[in-house]
Design a protein that fits this description.
Elements: E1 2-13, E2 16-27, E3 31-35, H1 42-49, E4 57-62, E5 65-66, E6 75-78, H2 92-96, H3 104-109, H4 126-137, E7 144-148, H5 156-173, E8 176-181, H6 184-190, E9 193-196
Parallel strand pairs: 3-8, 3-9, 6-7, 7-8
Antiparallel strand pairs: 1-2, 1-4, 4-5
């Protein structure tokens, strides 16, 4: 069982490739880093793996089956800016429980307080919103998590707290994890291996 990427390529304009020939495999329980400076296509690759956009070349295979565009996606993406993923008109409890109702123990693991549930996104900090984003991604049917610069904008204490909670759940559920970052220190600490996307960049 694995998330497999075969010869993936993407371009926004014909013959102006962001990257080409990207091949990786993330086994269940495996941790792989994707490194690269801004503009090399890291977030674009993340969106392809999570079925937000389609590749121009290659394929994504999830646990032996070609990637589906409909229904629940077993590959879940946690974005860098959680405020952009929340409906500003919904209370946090509605955003959190849109696709499933998380157990209290999961909320506690990420320090989500009861009083936050009645608030709107604008009333919470970036770190508090990111905790909701992570719990939303940890659906019972999730098999792989992509953390795209997940804690870059947060202070060191909040970063450590969020990573500790996520890594414990990833280990407990034997989830595959892709860590996307321009900071090798984070990748070296968390991941088993790393792909440098700049080696495939054609921008």
């Amino acid at each position: 069982m694995s998330l497999k990427v075969n010869n993936l390529g993407f371009c926004y304009r014909p013959e102006s490739w962001v990257f080409r020939n990207v091949s990786i495999e993330v086994p269940k329980g495996g941790r792989i880093g994707i490194y690269g400076n801004s503009g090399c296509g890291k977030t674009t690759l993340a969106k392809i793996l999570a079925s937000f956009i389609s590749p121009k070349e290659g394929e994504v295979v999830v646990d032996g089956e070609n990637q589906k565009r409909e229904g629940f996606q077993p590959v879940q993406l946690i974005f860098q800016h959680p405020e952009k993923t929340m409906n500003p008109l919904w209370r946090m409890k509605d955003s959190l429980c849109e696709s499933y109702v998380p157990e209290k123990s999961l909320l506690d693991a990420f320090g989500i307080r009861d009083e936050w549930m009645e608030r709107y996104p604008i009333e919470l900090s970036g770190g508090e919103l990111q905790r909701f984003s992570i719990v939303r991604a940890l659906h019972p049917e999730t098999k792989y998590i992509i953390a795209d610069e997940m804690t870059t904008m947060l202070d060191a204490i909040t970063q450590a707290s969020i990573w500790k909670g996520l890594l414990e759940i990833v280990k407990e559920r034997n989830l595959g994890l892709i860590v996307i970052s321009h900071e090798m220190a984070i990748i070296d600490k968390i991941c088993d291996s790393c792909l440098n996307l700049e080696d495939y960049c054609h921008a």
